[in-house]
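Lab manual, section 2.4: Encoding a predicted structure.

Procedure: take the sequence of the chain (364 residues), apply the prediction step described in section 2.3, and record the output as structure tokens. A sample record is shown.
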Amino acid sequence: MNAATVKILYIDDEEYNLHAFKAGFRRQYEIYTAISADEGLKILETIDVHVIIADQRMPGITGVEFFKSIVKTYPDPTRILLTGYTDIEALADAINEGHIYRYITKPWNELELHNSIKNAYDAYKAKVELRNKVAELEKTNDELNRFIYSISHELRAPLVSVIGIVNLVKMEDLFTSSGEYWGLIETCSNKLDYYIQKTLQYYKNNKTASDQTEINFSALISELIPLYSYADKDTNFAVTVDQPSTFIGDAFRIEVILGNLISNAINYQKVNEPDKRVAIKVTVNTEMAEILVQDNGIGILDDHLEKIFAQFFKGKNHHGSGLGLFIVKEALTKINGKIAVSSNNTEGTTFKINIPNAQPEHQA
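Recorded output:
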């Protein structure tokens, strides 16, 4: 785009200034003039303007007030304020709130105004190009996420078949017939299944709209514990649920949150601990659900407590994907929940979660 196609809207209640501006810049730019803010708005409705210049002192509305009024409707055009008097408070207000790119005093210097328009147009192009790049990146990221989801979903079908074959071998007492091979197949298959499930959870958590339903925490936890402890029969669970009030929430994300925390509590137990324990306590009222998940496992180093919710973070002695707690934090963010953690290597780890009751005003 060359200078001749740069579209400028100049608003001023003094007709002489409009004529002078048009005479001085008509050969360099495509000029539109308006003698009032209302006329300026009508032009903006039909013309894609790149730069807007407005006089500060106009009857009915100041230049700053005009810029503030159009910032949401017309965010792209770069704004230049003309002022013939010193109004520091108004200028500071406009600049601080980001509504103007630059201000120029009247009477203007033609070279200064020309350079300001040029720079303002460069700023306009940069803003539009950045937005377009962001849109392209979002589209590419969305396509990549859908591809990963599709591949992960397709991979899980044959993997489930492999795990099923391993279970049949166990049922026929052939698991040890080939030395360690069946055990290695089972371990690798379970690990791959774990990674695939985390990938699917990550995708669904980002894409799935919130669906508010009634949640029975006793029933939900009773379903999740066997699901995540099928390969670990040594960990003892103590579950306490106090739910006198109906709880309305996002069932999918709450299941993801609890599932990941239960899985972590099992996976990070001490190898030689004779009494592996996980305590889950849920307290529900009309305002929120408070959930505690406590284990007596290996604990988390103090230096790692601020990092455990980062994507792909894996601390010492932690063998997971680095996605579980990241997904937990992302899911909680989606439902306005909060999480806190305390841990040491002697007593284990406690996660405390608060999830708002979606419809507290409707509860008994």
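Check your result against the sample. The longest helix spans residues 110-171.
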